[in-house]
Amino acid sequence: MPTTNTDLIDRYLHAVKFWLPKAQQADIVAEIGEDLQSLVEEREAALGHTLDEDDVAVILKKRGSPLKVASSYLPQQRLINPAMLPVYRLVLKIVLCWVFVPLFAFVFLGPVLAFAHPGEMLLRCLVEYWRAAFMTVGMVTTVFALLDRYQVKFKHADDWNPRKLPRVPGTQDTMTRWNHLAGFIFGFAAAAFWVSLMWQRSEFAFSGGTRLILGPLWKQIYWPVLGLTLTGAFFDLLSSLSPRWTRVRSRVRIGIDVCGLVIVAALLKAGNFVEISGGNFSAADLANKVAWINGMIDWTVIAAGVITIFDAAGAARFLLRGKRAKPAAIPSAM
Amino acid sequence: MHTNAASSELFDNLRLELRRGCLVVAVLAQLYTEHYGYALRKALGDQGLAIDENTLYPLLRRLESQGLLVSQWREEEKRNKRFYRLSPLGEEVLPDLLEEWRQMTAALERILGGRGIASAAECGGPRKEEK
User: Fold this and answer.
1) pTM over 0.80
2) Residues facing residue B117 across a β-bridge
3) Does B27 reside within a domain?
4) Whole-number pLDDT of residue B129
5) For residue B28, what is the domain's CATH number?
6) What is the CA radius of gyration of chain B?
7) Nearest residue of A to residue B82 by CA position?
8) Which of A30, A38, A69 is opposite residue B54, by nearest beta carbon?
9) ipTM attached to this prediction
10) Chain A residues near residue B57 by CB distance under 8 angstroms
11) Looking at the domain assignment, is residue B131 inside a domain?
12) Predicted confidence band at B6 (pLDDT cuts at 50, 70, 90)?
């Protein structure tokens, strides 16, 4: 066999060897080399002449790239057991949710409280979210990879009871889930708006020297409103994850609504929400404007109170009717 | 609607799955008598079961690691060759595997016969798409 052919095969074998585990390199490469030599000899015998470099190159090309050949000898590895993939996805979703929501509060609301520039706030938010996502996914994946590597078996996988399986979700559940998710987003946006608008604020200054001075009640209700809004948002988040948690949800919802109504009542009782100072207004004009603004806030608070009452009534009706979702009918086995 | 390429890829994947188990049985059965890798591949190919080198050699190593085959490097025709043959464990397992294979084939034949599908040609060839 010409030197060039041997050289080509040697180079090929050397390239395959590079990708193989050290302990098996010599053995596998010797076997592949022997197979290639046998093939070349057979071709040469059939053609009646020695193969040239191009012929050998065709044979090697047909055999496949060194990486492909080497990989066929390697064990089919996986990072996570396919049987555990659904659990992995679920854990990842839960952990990401528990990391991102508090992170949102610290990273997004933190700079708002400190009156940071919106651009800086957004950038910081993106950086922190990306870092948190990367670390969370990495850690969860590592844990599952270790579980797979050390062949940790979950008792639940084999020891399960068909009677304890969750019932089939109906369309009502799906709708409720989306409603709660929307409630969570709205609640968080409302909390962020409340913080950015009212944090350590005693007045709003307008052009022309006009100042809208907030009544003392706003300072008193600042934290209760924020706390209640965030509680409602978190509760909606939990409810969206578990829409069948209906009775507990109804009770907590009523509790949140009652607290909201207490705030509404306190606002309505205080009555005098804002004063106006500065600006070139006559006394009568100023009084009219103050009355109009206070009236508008009054009606807004009343509207919020009515919505809260309806919300609480809906939850109470659910509780009174004892409407616990019945298990869906499961067709009998054939 | 499946494109031809998608249908062809699907067929290739199904074929690969179908062949995977068959190749194990064929290799074990062929290695009742000792062969080295190249000769084994030729022998299987001559009997209508072509097998790619990158499939055969890793399969041989896997079967050996499972204790179904034994191998030995030996010089023949001035070259070192690795000869494989069934191990005692392989000799014990193979008849059971073959019995399983026969039962599966018989069951499949009954299913095909019951549906009036005697051969691929009768249902328009294995690759023909239904309209």
Assistant:
1) no
2) none
3) yes
4) 40
5) 1.10.10.10
6) 18
7) A31
8) A69
9) 0.77
10) 28, 31-32, 35, 72-73
11) no
12) confident
